[in-house]
Write a structure and sequence with these properties.
The protein is of the alpha/beta class. It is built from 13 helices and seven strands. The protein has three domains: 4-127, Conserved hypothetical protein from pyrococcus furiosus pfu- 392566-001, ParB domain (Alpha-Beta Complex); 170-231, Arc Repressor Mutant, subunit A (Orthogonal Bundle), CATH 1.10.10; 238-288, no CATH class.
């Protein structure tokens, strides 16, 4: 069987080879009024490029709609719901067509509707990263599919699905910038490496204002993390300051105590290999004193 990854450009039968798996559900082609069709309620694609749509409408006006629109009967039996082909349906409307060819699939559940629409858009690379993330989220939350199940159904690695879903944690402004291709998925992952939404917005603004590359954005974030960590250092109380001084006097070496949120670190400086050996002797023989 042809893999979904190799089905691009081969038509609906190649993109959805499972359409013919059930003989009782063999789709058939018909003509219907364009007003009888309604959009796929699980359509992951939210934006349609106006220039591309215009070119498609011009082509349809000249040559007609050559590929049928895949549909199922609407729940209320009034017309059909589009499974795949909404872009062509919109262009056919713009071209002034009154009737269009449809391929009717009779046994299509809601989860199939969401999955097939997602696969069609992925195969044709028509989704922006946020639309794709939203589609995976719908499959998980509405239809309770695991990331592993989604991976098998759409032909992508589970890690790819997981990384895509992480994009939904971006601030709204970053999602919009990613959808508009003002930033890349690499920029988005860099923004997500910052913990607080406030800092994420600062990083996004600098990326946009300075037109930073992903590598430059990563350096920027590292700088923010360093400054943030310094700001979180806990002030030493008098007890720790006295203890720090006593350790330095006992070891005759610069010493410091760095308290953390849980526990802390004792740092002892040495100036040479001889100094290190001297300190090692003291520490290893501490029980003898």
């Amino acid at each position: 069987m042809m893999s979904k990854k190799n089905a691009l450009g081969k038509g609906l039968g190649a993109i959805f080879p499972d359409l013919m798996d059930d003989p009782s559900d063999k789709p058939h082609i018909a003509m219907c009024g364009i007003e009888e069709l309604s959009p796929n309620r699980f359509q992951p694609r939210k934006s349609f490029d106006e220039e591309q749509q215009k070119r498609l409408a011009d082509s349809i006006k000249k040559n007609g709609l050559l590929q049928p629109i895949l549909v199922r009967k609407s729940d209320n039996d009034a017309g059909y719901e589009i499974i795949a082909g909404e872009r062509r349906w919109r262009a056919a409307q713009a071209a002034g067509l009154r009737d269009v060819p449809i391929l009717i699939r009779h046994k299509t559940k809601d989860v199939d509707l969401a999955e097939l629409s997602l696969i069609e858009n992925i195969q044709r690379e028509e989704l922006n990263p946020i639309e794709e993330s939203g589609a995976y989220y719908t499959l998980m939350e509405t239809f309770h599919l695991s990331q592993e199940e989604i991976s098998r159904r759409v032909g992508k690695d589970r890690s790819t699905i997981a990384n895509s879903l992480r994009l939904l944690n971006l601030p709204r402004e970053a999602k919009e910038a990613l959808a508009k291709k003002e930033i890349s998925a690499g920029h988005a992952r860099t923004i997500l490496s910052v913990d607080s939404p406030e800092e994420q917005m600062i990083v996004l603004k600098e990326i946009l204002d300075k037109k930073l590359s992903v590598r430059e954005a990563e350096k920027l974030v590292q700088g923010h993390k360093t400054r943030s960590q310094k700001g979180k250092e806990i002030t030493k109380d008098q007890y720790l300051l006295d203890l720090e001084r006593k350790i330095a006097e006992r070891l005759m070496a610069r010493s410091s105590i760095k308290p953390l949120r849980s526990g802390g670190v004792i740092e002892i400086r040495f100036t040479s290999s001889d100094d290190l050996n001297r300190l090692s002797d003291i520490l290893m023989n501490v029980d003898d004193h």
